[in-house]
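Q: Predict the assembly, please.
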Amino acid sequence: MSSSIVIAPILIQAFVAILLMFTWQRSRFHRVFSVLGNILSLTLGLVLFHEVYYNGAIAFQAGSWVAPYGITFVADLFSASLIVLSQIAGLAVSIYTTTAVIGQRQRFGYFAIFHFLLMGLGGAFIAGDLFNLYVWFELIIICSFVLLTLGGKRIQIEGAVKYFTLNMLASMIFLTAIALLYGATGTLNLAELSVIVPKLENQNYIQLVAVIFFTGFGIKAGVFPLYFWLPASYHAPPIAISAIFAGLLTKVGVYALIRVFTLVFVVQGFNQQLILWTAVFTIISGGLGALAQKDIIKAFSYLIICHIGFMIAGLGFHSQDGLAGAIYYMSHDIIAKTSIFLIGGMLIKMTKSSQLSQMGGILNNYPRYAFLFAITFFSLVGIPPLSGFWPKIYLFRAAFLSGCNDGTRFVVIGGLIFATFITLVVMFRIWNQAIASKSEEGAHDDFAGLSKSQKSSMWLPVVLLSFVVLALGFGAEFLGQITQRIASELLDPAAYIRAVGIIVE
Amino acid sequence: MELVLAIIVGFLYAAGIYLILRRSLVKLIIGLVLLGNGINLLIFLMGGLKRGNPPIIDAGKNTLTDPNIDPVPQALILTAIVISFGLQSFAIVLIKRVYKTLHTDDLDALNTTDKI
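A: Predicted assembly structure:
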């Protein structure tokens, strides 16, 4: 198979987006084509994953320009699995939005922008070039600005100002780091940087550039002192849009961190301490933030931050187990967070409120739905054998075996236990108050009034995502094997460099 | 020349960040614009400043004529300018909407999203 399979899922998204732009205002057509486009793109993503799984990393050189001169797209196992996961999340949200995003937004091009966003996400995962990565990031943020403000309610506009400023600042910090790195190396191709950077004499300079990269990507990923845009904006747009933000946007930041800190920079000494301590503070502040919230969507937003800490901690240990744990957790988190936000949307429909104190009665009125929701709830808490549990084993093993000093190591272990516990408390508080508690109102809610097809378009994506969550949990052996392979590929980038076609002297 | 550019870049960064930290929305946007310009100049500076020939191989030769100029930073700056232009126009529309919805230019008034 030719190497153009690498860009196929992204091209499909681009075509769908353009097609939808030309059929402006025809929302029924949009709904059908959005779902079909996502199914096609997911299929191509699976083909790509299959190819990469059996034949190793594939590189696509745009316009056949040889590696360091042209634009390179590389799909290794890490990128391919993230493309598959992001397309699954995209498909689920696409089905959900056929009814959940009201007609007016759909007419103003919601679906077209949504597909451009998915294209940007896919592109960021396969970019083999730092500047190309920057361009994809910009595409992602501009699409997310539009999705965030579409509708123009007061809360959306306010959230958008914070989201806009900090994300634009992050891009600028990222671009500054690119400029500084280019000045030192004369290249931006990730594979070539991976060869050149360790040979440079002035490693202090590289250290500085690494910290600037960490700051830029850290804002996007939502790590400790830089996350304030996230809870301020994620509850503002309609839930379906929040779901795609929650599932994927911060993960792109984490992806970029993992990619850059395995391929270009090394995680040891100061960097390692920086990353691990950031992870601990992210976990603690996210967890406490989630505990303090009375609005379920805000609580879920803080849980995103808390769980980003897990992935960053895995990166910080920079070992086989650490990276495998981080990637496993990331795969679980993309699916589970998208699912929990969609569930949040259904809960709000069922109880007419997003305030915990005013919710309740789901277990009485909708017992089957409550069972469906339980899968995602328990998975997020990490109850074995669901998917949130397995990556934690890797992370704990990585923490105990890591070579960094005892103080940091045990603080991180403490942080991981704390986060697991906090997640348990938060999820069970939501379960008790929103789902299990009794309410006198009965079934006179917004959900009961929906037509059958509207209802199914809401529960179908949650069922789909729950199946994936179950698969990620029960298929732990296969997933473990894949993530271990990804981790070893990340730790030894020789295959990646060879696939791109950079000659190592 | 490098020193002059370095000072200008530093000044643009400082001014940009100062304006972002102000409470006014308009100043926020101007700050982001200045910061963007600072970054473009930084890329230009990091590409190396020298006089030389364009990076085009002359007829009948196999290599570039020395001294030649690295075209990559210019391409990067061009892309960055286009992107920041798009983002800035979005930002200007956004602050117009903020003003129409909230009737204020004060960033401190935008705090309803952070209340529990």
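Chain A has 21 helices and two strands. Chain A has a mean pLDDT of 87.
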